Predict the structure of Endonuclease MutS2.
Amino acid sequence: MQDILKKLDLVDYIDSFSKLLAREKSIILEGDINLHHKHINELSKFDFKAPSKVENLDSALMHIQKQGILKIYEIFEFIKIINYFRYLKRFNFDGKMLEWLDKIIIPNEIIKISDYFDEKSNLKDGVNEDFDNIKYAISKNKEMIKQSLYKIINSTKIRTYLVDSQVHYINGEEALLVRGGFNHVLSGSVIDRSNSGFFYVIPHSISELKQKQNDLKNKQEEILFKICKEISSLFEKNLLFLKFLNKEFDRFDHYQARLFFAKVGDKNFILPSKNETNRLVDFCHPALHNAKPISIDFTKSVVMITGVNAGGKTMMLKSILSAVLLSKYLLPYKAHHDTVISNFKSINAVLDDPQSVKNDISTFAGRMVEFSKLFTSKNAIVGVDEIELGTDSDEAASLFKVIIEDLIQRDIKVIITTHHKRLAALMASNDNVELIAALYDEENQKPTYEFLQGTIGRSYAFETASRYGIPYSVVKRAKEVYGDDKDKLNELIERSSSLEREYKQKIAKLDDEIANMQRITNNLKEQKEKLDEHIYSEKSKLHKEYNDARDEAKKAIKAKLVSESHQHLNIAHQKAKEIKVEKVQEIVEFTIGDRVKYRNTKGTIVSIKGAKAYIENDMGMKVQVNLSDLSRSGNPPPKIPTKKATVTIQKPETGSIKLDLHGQRADEAIENLDKFLSDALLAGFEEVLVYHGIGTGKLAFAVKEYLKKHPKVRGFEDAHPSSGGFGAKVIKL
């Protein structure tokens, strides 16, 4: 792992992540990556504190298993983990996090032990009466020693030999600082000398008190040993639980470290997918400061990067492999959330020159050793920098063409950088190969660090040599030796590759258009069949209703009584009124920008949401209507002279850059927050601060969800610790 991190320039990035872990461990998070991501997402809704640093407990668990007795500091490391899970259980988690924490049931006897200690690992008063008595006796004896020393300091007989009137602590012992000759007035033991040549002395008059102090401390250690023995025995009975808890703590430690790491620098989690699409969008390599974001589609089996020297080809290769590695291990990084990465079993980087005196191997031979390992791999991604390095480039082109084609068949994705146009030209006709060129600014004679897909790039070797100080006369002679014919040949290779790509793109575009026309034809055919069926159904319905009305009319004619005839005529009239023909409306698909007609109004569609559309009529007014009420209109909008309108908005007197929501209900807080943001926008504020507190996390979650949906909020983040930390949000408007 360390080797690949070093090759991809990710060592510092991973080190900065590892510092957020509560204890040192591998960055690999075992288990279902999708389940881990769900847990992290659910955790992100709550403001919680990170766990304190914890020692590795593998040795301590082994010691318990062998019925050993733990030291008090080892016991406290377990207590820190236990207390942290007790802290987590106070949150109102739901979903997968709740299911997971519910499985961690801490035995009552373990909870009782965890309450023995304060935050500094000291035993609390009341845990053991003998221990409390000894602690009190030690404190009282220490005070007696201090009083005895101050009594000596205030003695007129010793005062002339004292350097100062303080009690000094030297190696844990109370002592006085005196000048030479003190032995005439003070009997004591010298334990050290100062830089100025004075003596640190322990008077013999407090020796008995010091001895008593040592005896009390020894007694305290004996009592502490008994307490540790009892706790160790209890831990042995709950050994399986402690092992389980220790493992689950490491799992949560991975979660919290990734979550807090993602918050720094606006990083995203990009999960590996089963989709065969691979696309980087606005990726910034962590090793670069103010890096230009990279976007590249590397869905095809082979990506061949050519072009200018020092134009970023190697960093492009490292960026692709870095994104794959970070996604594989669920580590957040700076990229747009539209980035898509496949799940690769292994990641290989052939970047260095393997030649050295120590391994007695040539550059090319070392490269062949690296490639030979790939033939036993599957579902892997490999990056090769300067693929033709170490041998004749023409021979290498033929060899690597065949090697690459074989690797494609083995489901291996290959990312390559090369300056050799022959290899690029040989591979250009392969549908599984994507050509990418690093671009060069010929006017300013420097690389742009931008890339163009679908073409072979020039190396600009002569231009680069001139830029770095090679004399113009030397470069000119080199161009003459190189010859115009080879230069033209390179241009032909680049142009033929571009033409071939354009030709394939046009064919693909035509195929898409043909498929689209076929789809439209099929849809029209289906619509016609449905309309024919509908018309037949409506005709049958009308025929029946007409016959019913006619029968009622006949009954009215035959009726002898006038009242009865009127009754039948009324029924016939009612049936005639009830005869309705369902309107048959052709299904029309509208898109943004279409000219449409709504009742007596004509206009243009500006947006579509579901079954509704916003149209802007020819008078400039916007209205929301149902798509089903629209019909097409091909008439252009009439030209209406525009008038400039001036709108004056007065800043509210209540504008403020801070809002405190502590103690408010969620709905009340959101209402106040909405008014506050409106006032802030009118007042022209670009950044405001909102306090919501930590508490149960409900108010913080409601505030975050509201800010995500607010159309005028550009972004928000946790405030600086001095301004509220996790309990406040800095909102950018």
Observations:
- Confidence is low (pLDDT under 50) at residues 640-655.
